[in-house]
Write a structure and sequence with these properties.
The protein is α+β, with helices and mostly antiparallel strands. It is built from 19 helices and 14 strands. Strands 1, 2, 3, 4, 5 and 6 form a six-stranded antiparallel β-sheet that branches. A six-stranded antiparallel β-sheet has the order 9-8-7-12-14-13. Strand 1 and strand 2 form a beta hairpin.
Length: 525
Amino acid sequence: MNAKEWRYKAEGNKHIVFCNKEGKVLRLKKSTKVCECNGVICQKCKGSNNELEELNYQRCVVMPLMKNCSACKCPSRVKVPSTFTDQLNKMVQTYRPAYRRHKSLIRSDFGILMEDKTLLHPKDAIGEYLANNVRSDVFCIEVKLKKGFMSNVDPAANNQVCQFCALQMYRTFNDGKKGKLNYYCPIDLFSGNKSVMINTIKELVECPQNTFRVFKNGDIVFSQELLDKLSQKDGNETGNSLLEEVIQSFFADHKACNGSSKSLCNLYHFFDLLCCALLAPLDDTPQKNLVLHNNNLTCKGKFFKEPFLRESHLTCSNSSELSSMTIPLDCSKSCVPSSSILGLVLSCQLLSNIDYSLLMNSYSSIIHDQDIRVISELDGQFDKQSWQNIGKIDTNANFDRFSMTKSRKNGKIAHSRPPSSSTDAQTLVQKYLVSKSFCDCSVMITMQDVSGCEVEIEKLLRAETKKPGSSSSKSMFLLKSLNGFVFLVQISVVDIDPKPSSRIPLYCQQHEKLKSWCDDVMFPI
């Protein structure tokens, strides 16, 4: 492998992602540990790699739970020479955000290779047609979905505040991370009501943090880091004003709406199209539509944030000029189709809603029994029967249980019952770890304007579904925007990584700490 053929793409807490001109990305692990290898962690210092187990997790757990839909594809494992890693580690430092540089690449034997989801990856005939007939830019929106339902085990459940909003307020006021507030709430994003979804995405754009990013032709053009740099130069720069500039070429030759500027109109149509993509069914099977938006299921986090959002030092930017873009609510149209990307992810999140004291007791009993087989399976061996059983769970049934339970519990799901055996304890812990991994995943919505070519592309898309062995699921389809443009849309879900069971004590400790703060400080009785 030649390091010069790869360039820095992005990074999270555990990985750095590189891309090449072939439309591929390479994900390599990083760590805070140091050794004598010039800041690069050698395999001896790190221990054995587990890329193979990550792939087994995708194959045996994630993909079956996601109905083997085309939006969720299994990557591949590739050999990575240590010299290649060393070269990348030196090349990448100047492109990395300062707050990420305390971690370095690990000298692992393997890396994870996958398609670059910020670009379209059509089948042969469609790809050839696009190359010869379409010249518009390719835009990709990445959204970290977070936990999309409310529960009576949430730390601020007594005040009807979701986990995300409670944690955001805690980080802003208490734990020294200097977090920033906004009105964004994932409960609104999962509401299925486009008016509610558009309003919350608008708020998210003002303070995207690591939750919302936009790419244009594979290059990042909107992120919190870019917004911060521009804000230092121009104090009037807001998230929505930056996004308006970014998507100027998204709707070519578009005229302004009546009474609105062209840029604001484009922004609204952009958000509407994004919501349509998130709610689009990815197969033709009968849908179970989960209704989420009503008074019992609405997070009140915005109400508690309101007094503090008036203080500029606690917010990301001033978005008052966009108040005219707030969309009136239409609560008669609020549902999440079960085979939409939101429905698929939410049904997997609903695998577990265990009380944290019960979770800790279940985990402690496993450790206390010192059953080597069970302990080893919790953090690997994802091809074993216990994990395959998790993958075989009918996640559509989670929709039914949610609908029945919410009516009895004022919209909040009851927690799981105590385990009756060690096998039950193992299953409870496994379900929790899987649910948590789906709460941290990202959805990539990649779109290209194909107006004027939609008839031929529709024929090619239908032809692909009729080929022998083709999947009944679709990750690529056509959508028409409110202003008449037609887009080829590709949906992908990424970063569904296994969570280590060794962190369960930390998760429980963080939950109790957050709950105490909510009860005693933020929402005292």
